[in-house]
Amino acid sequence: MTELKIPNLNRVLLAGRLTRDPELRFTPNGTAVCNFSMALNRRFKDQAGNWQDEPTFVNVVAWQSAAENIGKHLHKGSPVLVEGRLESRSWETETGQKRNSLEVRADNVRFLERFESTAAAPGPEEPSESPDI
């Protein structure tokens, strides 16, 4: 029997909005890490012809300068486009329970709203280019 060759591919591309403010922290050696959650929406017609929304919630982690920019510019409700890969983590709680988590490790994050160059929050007048991470 011939061995099946499966491509080694782990890429995700997600567009959605932050469900909460990003959590920026630093590791003991000073590396920035930012965790945030996104809501993705699938809109479809049900069998009766009515539009339905089906949200999916995804946890995302970004590192280094990307993490710092996300913590500085984004907030709950910010629209983003995230490109990255799936990563799983396993750990044991203090009570001995085993836990698993599947999250997106962000390689690129595109801010989908514009910001004023001098402000940390979006402004209504004369927006500049939105930063790309």
Radius of gyration: 18 Å
Helical run tally: 1
The CATH topology of the domain at 12-45 and 52-108 turns out to be OB fold (Dihydrolipoamide Acetyltransferase, E2P)
Q: Tell me, what is the CATH class of the domain at 12-45 and 52-108?
A: Mainly Beta
Mean pLDDT: 87
Largest sheet: 5 strands, mixed, barrel
**Helix/sheet category:** mainly beta
Shape: globular
Low-confidence stretches: 118-130
CATH architecture of the domain at 12-45 and 52-108: Beta Barrel
Structure summary, number of beta strands:
6
- Separation, N- and C-terminal Cα atoms: 46 Å
Describe this structure in words.
The protein has one helix and six strands; from the N terminus they run E-E-E-E-H-E-E. The protein has a domain at 12-45 and 52-108: OB fold (Dihydrolipoamide Acetyltransferase, E2P) (Beta Barrel). The chain has a five-stranded mixed beta barrel. The chain is mostly beta strands and 133 residues long. The model is unreliable at 118-130 (pLDDT under 50). Helices cover 8% and strands 50% of the residues. Strand 2 and strand 3 (32-45) form a beta hairpin.
